[in-house]
Write a structure and sequence with these properties.
single chain; 20 helices; Fumarase C, Chain B, domain 1; Fumarase C, Chain A, domain 2; 2 domains; two-stranded parallel ribbon; elongated
Length: 505
Amino acid sequence: MSPPRDVVRLDGRSLTLADVVRVARFGARAALTPAAARSVARSRALVDAVLAEGRPTYGINTGFGAMATAAIPPRDREALQLNLLRSHAAGVGNPLPADVVRAIILLRANSLAAGLSGVRGVVIERLLDLLRRDLVPLVPAQGSVGASGDLAPLAHLALVLVGEGEVIAGGQRLSGGVALRRARLKPIRLGPKEGLALINGTQVMTAIGLLALWDARAVLGAAEAAAAMTVEALLGSHVPFDLRLARARPHPGHLLVTRRLLKLLRPSAINRSHRDCGRVQDSYSLRCVPQVLGATWDALDHVSRVLAIETNAVTDNPLCFPESGAILSGGNFHGQPVALALDYLAIAVAEVGSFSERRSFKLLDAARSDLPPFLTRRAGTHSGLMVIQYTAAALVSENKILCHPASVDSIPTCADTEDHVSMGPIAARKAAAVVRNVSRVVAVELIAAAQGLDFRRPLTSGPGVEKAHALVRRVVPPLDRDRSLGSAIEAVAEQVLRGEYAAIG
């Protein structure tokens, strides 16, 4: 069920991950709070005062980057801001998904709502109009190095506000001018500082990262369910999930996963059936589920803290402080905090996939599982689930390439003024790709584990495992003879990303 189409109130300080998802994926609208509107007006008044004084101030009455020493006369200041958008809209590649673009718009509006960027309220309102009218700017995915912010993709987005660029509206690809006209919106004329404020920020990497983080939580919850199902299908021991072991090494994630596994597994007739089997210990991919998945939960908590700060950060340059009358140039646009966190996210989630694939392998190996080869009674004539493990292996291997950190690289730009950059957008896109890949790897395990549990009938597991089994069977019938399974993997992966397995409890 979709969350309600409510209104998210923007004040530059209190936007949450859940708010971003509601707007990006479920059509919630956003609006400035009255207090934020007043802060924005005070900030703009400071810019106007600087212009009246004639005080040279970066990006307001000077050029940009390596041309910051060039004074811009009043007659050219609107052209300066418009030319900034046009020149910086140099992105390439496939367009970012609509949910990512909606998240970018929301984050940029929220940052400007903090009242430190010196823009007029109409600029923020026009951004929010894009959300209200379901206008999705066409934003190429590639071209940002993550400092000075996400310049190229944000410039493509900002061009729509002035009636240029491109938009997807109602399934049609339109010019920005046509889209605004059809929506009965007027293009804005940029004042001093406003073009710079629209493109100088980390909202692209942050938006991709926030949605990847949301999905990663769903994937990790599903991985817990898949692991519990596999433990039962392979007649694994519950002893490693004794809370006394977790309390002896009390990492928060370790404790969390242990409790969730116990809730999924108990009471279990399958477990009672092999209580005196004589097996001393299971392999690590069964025995160490709390330790491995728990470490990823702890990593996601760290990433969450970083992105929560960035969601409500002001990341353009310079920043306006009306209380003191200061306009300060700095480097808040540098994406290093986000880049490092998103490289960590990719690594932590990739491990979930690597771990899951090992359990899928064991389920299909008759020598290890005490189950029919490749989980088919017709082995030989039929291959059963053999090749879905190949798919998991391919995705796990691809993730190893994607986990090479982007944040360790830097190529100077802008005549060496920007001599160190974060590559944060690359880290973000890699993390999102890893999360999607792992959703499919976990889907493979869920399908294999469900088939394995079918062979343990009439014995049943705990109610949580049985609910997970039923979820798989809702979209994937038992395999009694060979059939194509690609669409089955995708169907279960979509369940995973919707959080259906994570919600079991």
